[in-house]
Amino acid sequence: MTTEEHVVLVDRDGRALGTAPKTSVHGRETPLHLAFSSYVFDREGRVLLTRRADHKITWPSVWTNSCCGHPLPGEPVDRAVVRRLSYELGIEAERADLMLPAFSYRAVMANGIVEHELCPVYRVVVDASVSPNPDEVGETRWMPWKEFAEGAQNGLLAISPWCREQVPLLTELGSDPLRWQPASSDDLPLAARL
Fold first, then answer.
1. Domain coordinates of the chain in residue numbers?
2. CB neighbours (10 Å) of residue 117?
3. pLDDT grade, residue 2 (50/70/90)?
4. Does the pLDDT at position 4 exceed 90?
5. pTM
6. Homologous superfamily of domain range 6-181
7. Is 163 one of the catalytic residues?
8. Which of 88, 115, 117, 165 is catalytic?
């Protein structure tokens, strides 16, 4: 018997308020909760894009960054990134580097479903091949970072709302994603500092 996955609810200052079942927090009244986004790069600086599975509750079939998810209560966020990359994409990553420690967003789908997340952003560099889990990912594509970033910022690529907000912040870190300097984990929201 599997137990239902829980997410960490947070206040506007990033303090934990408790937990809730993951299935209960994505609706029209979505509470602010802890999540993460990750961008996987190969050694050539290409970014791995994923098209969300068609049956996802939020933004089904939409192209986005490599992997998103939620840390379990008590789980360090960088470990959650590594765990989800293995589950969603078959990638065995050694580590995840924190890039945007305090990113947060709220987005509303046409049907009224809301995403509302305090969502630190991570970079992962891999040599490995990708083996997408069809329960999570409909399709994958590698793209040169510069081409992706320009397309995302110029509105030429249809991507998820959180990815659209994250890309300009990531480009401010420099033109070469393999040389971005990681942020300090001390800058994470309080709920994410374990």
1. 6-181
2. 25
3. low
4. no
5. 0.95
6. Nucleoside Triphosphate Pyrophosphohydrolase (3.90.79.10)
7. no
8. 117
